[in-house]
Amino acid sequence: QVQLVESGGGLVQAGGSLRLSCAASGSIFSINAMGWYRQPPGKQRELVAVITSGGSINYADSVKGRFTISRDNADNTVYLQMNSLKPEDTAVYYCNAEIRVVPQSVFHYWGQGTQVTVSS
Q1: Does the structure show a pLDDT above 90 at 83?
Q2: Cβ-proximal residues to 70 (8 Å cutoff; 6+ apart), any chain
Q3: Half-sphere exposure of 96 (CA within 13 A, CB side)
């Protein structure tokens, strides 16, 4: 059984910062990419940032220069440092990870989501 547990969401004023964390636990052989997605109210889920096990990173254009993704491979944890937050960053943020529970198979797992609300 694999679980992704997120923390760090909350309410912040525009221009403020938040740091999200997501820890993977359970029967894990290895983890490939880890990333963050978000779903604004009334909209579809979208990619925010992703980081591979080798450290390659991609960001959505809307967060480049403001958000930083990082990971601790020893702790199976991924972080999202969010600075200069804007009201349009308001969304439920979800952690995602590509996890091998056995060497031959890769599955995508999702966290439960954490609410980020940015007030103007």
Answers
A1: yes
A2: 51, 78, 79, 81
A3: 19
Q: Is the pLDDT of residue 1 over 90?
A: no
Residue/partner pairs of 27-31 with CB below 8 Å, 24 or more apart: 27/1, 27/2, 27/101, 28/2, 28/76, 28/99, 28/100, 28/101, 29/99, 29/100, 29/101, 29/102, 29/103, 30/99, 30/100, 30/103, 31/73, 31/76, 31/97, 31/98, 31/99, 31/100
Strand order in the sheet with 67-72: 2-7, 18-26, 77-82, 67-72
